[in-house]
Design a protein that fits this description.
Elements lengths: L1 E6 L6 E6 L3 E7 L7 H10 L6 E5 L8 H9 L5 E4 L2 H4 L3 H14 L3 E4 L15 H38 L15 H9 L5 H8 L3 H9 L1
Parallel strand pairs: 3-4, 3-5, 5-6
Antiparallel strand pairs: 1-2
């Protein structure tokens, strides 16, 4: 929105054009099969207009997303970016910190995370060190928590696999058993009567499997 301020009177009046900050909403779902209704409703309740919504339907592992880039290209000083939750912005927390720095410091815009009231820079002046400190602290905490969760999940997975193996659970494909006519086919292959490819066909296995069997 553009607001015009008029100074003076008559022919000597001066019109100054002042741009009012625009509120953009960013929505992300991981796949095209997921619904974004909940995020859309939150944006509507906040007051984001439909023509200011940017929607990506892809993973949040990085910020290489078309709608996000389009929004950042539109973003100007005094604008506001609204996101439903921090993970909708992205899952790479190191890159997220960099993007938040671009939004708040380079673009001089504001960021609002609806599910996290602590991250709302609208009431903070761009030079408010306390506000910047709180924002960075919250992001760093979530980065640490996410890192620990990933490590714990990996550890649980490895412990689960180890416990299952201890119980005799086999992972991967079960080994193929050699057919009863294997030795006959093998003997024909060794005498050059059958090729490796033909031998594998007769046994109903792949050529690498037959090769492995005869060289074990």
């Amino acid at each position: 929105m553009v607001i015009k301020n008029v100074y003076g009177a008559g022919d000597s009046s001066v019109i100054e054009t002042v741009r009012e900050g625009v509120v953009y909403g960013y929505i992300r779902v991981s796949t095209s099969l997921q619904h974004d209704d909940r995020q859309r409703t939150a944006m509507e309740e906040f007051g984001v207009s439909a023509d200011c919504l940017f929607i990506d339907k892809q993973s949040g592992k990085n910020f290489d997303r078309p709608a996000y880039h389009s929004m950042m290209a539109c973003l100007r000083k005094g604008d506001t970016v609204v996101v439903k939750s921090l993970d909708r912005l992205g899952r790479d927390y190191e890159e997220m910190i960099r993007q938040l720095d671009i939004i708040t410091r380079e673009k001089k815009a504001d960021i609002v995370i609806l599910d996290m009231p602590l991250i709302d820079t609208r009431s903070k002046h761009s030079d408010d060190l306390t506000g910047k400190f709180i924002l960075n602290l919250v992001i760093q905490i979530f980065s640490y928590v996410a890192h620990m969760e990933r490590n714990m999940n990996n550890q649980r997975t490895m412990e689960g696999i180890a416990a299952a193996r201890a119980r005799g659970v086999q992972f991967g494909r079960p080994p193929l058993t050699r057919p009863k006519n294997f030795e006959v086919i093998r003997a024909a292959w060794e005498r050059g009567i059958l090729s490796e490819h033909k031998s594998a066909q007769l046994l109903g296995v792949s050529r690498p499997t037959f090769h492995k069997w005869v060289h074990e």
